[in-house]
Specification:
This protein is mainly alpha-helical and about 500 residues long. About 80% of the residues lie in helices and about 0% in strands.
Length: about 500
């Protein structure tokens, strides 16, 4: 069992390197943009990318999940049909939708509150959507084939290209916010060109109707599910815009992005987790492995949560050559960071619970759960923002992630029951709660410094480790470490 979890950890680490490096490089554009563009211009960029994120779900309409499912389990169709059918279908739908966006660009500009002088940017958005969706199926093929290193390399190339042209166009060629989208288009085109030989190799100019029907049956429920998920991630910005002002949205958006550190952990875990549980589902001890994965994930994520929450002020205010992680004008929003991190932790638990959905092909429940989560998010935003401002918006997102995690857990237990270590999980959250009470009490008393913060973190890790790991698990981990470094194994007394 530990060997299989070790393989999951190895794949997660590889995906993690690309995800962490890539997202962090992208994150560095946030202070870059906010120091160059006005809040109004930055707001236009934010609205366009929310639009792109939401429409990317419509463009792929669940075909990514369906392809991952059927190609991983070697469906009766051949390898070329498994690739060609979803790829061609996505290509046709994406082309149609991009042309539709261009046709209705005036209406979309009005909805997104984009000024007339930037109305042409919707064209770039439609182009980004079209090209990026052509790369989705090839990227998933790399995951299925467990080519994590190649996957990571392609992602890094895409991001570095994007960043390079951002700097070139904005700093040296003095372009405006259109440079952000143009850079994205160039990076997307390059990625597609890299994939082109493999696309040609596996592509047949035929859509297997029988396979397409199975793909749609499994994948279409992920369309409303994906939309619900994306609304949870992005709907708070336009609601904040309506209920407050662009300045508040700018502060919220900058601090919300500090949740990237937990989001990265969830994303890199998800990349490795989905192929892993599909391949392990037929194993005798599969459910026991899945149970341990949830415990270990929650343990790891809780350490990240506590570490960043305790040291976020020190991290953000660290001055390197006159530059801080986010500008001082945004520091008033740091209070939302622990809430955002906790939300992503529950999102990670939700990802773990998706195993039963994939294995038993019960994707029909996914839109129900995400729909409820999105409804909770929207309602909570309108309810809490007038009272608590940006903290209310972050609490709304947290509430939706909690509802989705518990909802999916409750449903999957009915058809794919797993004996999760609930006692350990509740203990972890109990220790998080006690730690936060102690931390904020000491913070209010103004007696905290780096030393005391370090003591709090160390105590949290030690106490939580004692709860999570049994003696046998600790011994097994020790044995693995000794084997790794070619040392003598510890003896059992």
């Amino acid at each position: 069992m530990f060997d299989k979890i070790k393989q999951l950890t190895k794949d997660t680490a590889i995906y993690g390197v690309s995800t962490i490096v890539g997202r962090f490089i992208t994150f560095l554009l946030v202070p870059f943009y906010t120091n160059i563009f006005s809040p109004d211009d930055y707001g236009v960029i934010a609205n366009l990318y929310i639009f792109i994120a939401i429409f990317s779900i419509i463009y792929i309409f669940g075909m990514d999940a369906a392809y991952l499912k059927f190609a991983s389990q070697k469906s009766s169709a051949g390898e070329k049909d498994n690739f060609s059918t979803p790829f061609l279908t996505v290509t046709i739908i994406s082309l149609f939708l991009s042309l539709l966006i261009i046709f209705f660009k005036s209406s979309l500009n009005s909805i997104l509150e984009i000024p007339k002088q930037y109305s042409y940017l919707i064209f770039y958005s439609s182009l980004i959507l079209f090209i990026d969706e052509l790369c989705v199926i090839p990227f998933i093929k790399l995951r299925i084939e467990r080519k994590a290193k190649i996957f990571a390399a392609y992602k890094i190339i895409n991001i570095l290209t994007n960043v390079f042209f951002n700097i070139l166009l904005i700093v040296y060629l003095k372009k405006g916010i259109e440079a952000v989208l143009i850079s994205n288009v160039i990076a997307s085109v390059l990625t597609l060109l890299i994939f082109l030989p493999d696309i040609i190799k596996y592509l047949r100019p035929v859509i297997n109707i029988s396979l397409l029907q199975r793909l749609l049956k499994f994948g279409l429920p992920y369309l409303p599910a994906g939309l619900g998920s994306m609304l949870i991630q992005g709907i708070d910005r336009p609601i904040l815009t309506k209920l407050t002002d662009l300045n508040t949205v700018g502060i919220y958006n900058a601090n919300h992005k500090l949740g990237i550190f937990m989001m990265l952990v969830v994303n890199m875990f998800q990349y490795a987790w989905q192929p892993f549980f599909l391949q392990q589902s037929e194993e005798k001890d599969a459910k026991k492995i899945f149970s341990k994965v949830l415990t270990y994930f929650t343990f790891t994520a809780s350490i990240i949560l506590v570490f960043i929450s305790i040291f976020i002020d020190d991290i953000v205010k660290l001055n390197l050559g006159g530059i801080t992680l986010i500008g001082s004008a945004y520091w008033s929003g740091l209070a939302i960071v622990p809430i955002v991190l906790l939300g992503y932790l529950f999102n990670g638990m939700y990802v773990v619970f998706t195993a039963g959905i994939y294995i038993e092909e019960k994707s029909i429940y996914v839109p129900l759960i995400t729909g409820i989560g999105a409804a909770v998010n929207i309602a909570a935003n309108f309810l809490l923002i007038p009272w608590f401002g940006i903290i209310g918006a972050s609490l709304a997102a947290l509430a939706s992630y909690v509802v989705m995690a518990f909802g999916l857990y409750s449903i999957t237990q009915k058809f794919y029951k797993i004996e999760y270590e609930l006692g350990k999980l509740f203990s972890i959250f109990g220790i998080i709660f006690i730690t936060s009470v102690i931390f904020y009490w000491l913070k209010a008393e103004e007696v905290l410094n780096v030393f005391y913060k370090s003591i709090i973190l160390i105590l949290f890790i030690v106490i939580t480790s004692m709860v999570v790991f049994s003696k046998n698990e600790i011994l097994t981990i020790k044995n693995k470490l000794y084997e790794k470094f070619s040392l003598q194994k510890p003896k059992r007394f």
